[in-house]
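seq as requested:
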Amino acid sequence: MQPDMLERLVALATEREDIAALWLYGSRARGDHGLLSDYDLAVAFTDWLESPLERRLRPELLALDWQEALGLPEEKLSVADLGICPIPLGWSILEQGHLLLDKHPQVRMTQESRIMSRWEDEFSHLARRYG
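struct tokens:
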């Protein structure tokens, strides 16, 4: 990923008061991306939306906004909400991703702790069940 693209993503996230933290994950974070690879991002939001529909749409709409602001083709940028994503995805983001912005460390750490705790519970359950 180009450094100027990283800077632009961080600037976009910094402008938003509802974003506590921003991660890059996936092939671009690992460094094994190709020319056609998309940008996989994760965010921790500072607030919790009561409406399940609004919670589900928020990262999708954010991805569309940022894609347009960056001049990227359709479906070249995805955003996962660390607060609602599946635990295996959250674990992967935390293990392999790169934290790009940390505006509210307490919110970030709460999200990280929740995912790690639930991952340990799931791993423990699977180990007991399947040995």
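The domain at 3-130 is CATH 3.30.460.10 (Beta Polymerase; domain 2).
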